[in-house]
Predict the structure.
Amino acid sequence: MAYEVFKRTTVRVEEPCLSLVPDGRIAFNAAAVRILAGAGVKSVLLLWDKSSKRIALKATAKGDKNSYAVSIVRDSHSGSLRAKAFFGHIGWNAPKRMMLPATWNEKDKMFEITLPPGSTTGRRSSRKPVTAS
């Protein structure tokens, strides 16, 4: 009898990535979820740097009026948050899911990602930006 090797369809991901999803979600891969869970992050502020086309998700208290709740799947293999209004604010216009490498800033407890050129229209809502403290 000849055995066939089963080829894994998934692997443990060591590099954190955030996915921007057209339906208005930011999804976290398993590596990013492990970092968030280890740091005790349950709510974040969404930060936008227009000049460098960078997004940051900074840990904040649950009661902060500008906070977004981070939903993590029970087994800590994925998570997400709803950010549709934020996507409109920054003019994000990618037609399909975009996975981007994320850098964890331990000191500030925040993930940072850089959007690729052409992924924002430069169109913004009329809402005034709120500065993070």
Remarks:
- The first helix runs from residue 30 to 39.
- The first strand starts at residue 17 and ends at 21.
- The beta strands are 17-21, 25-28, 43-49, 54-59, 68-69, 71-72, 79-82, 98-101, 103-105, 110-114.
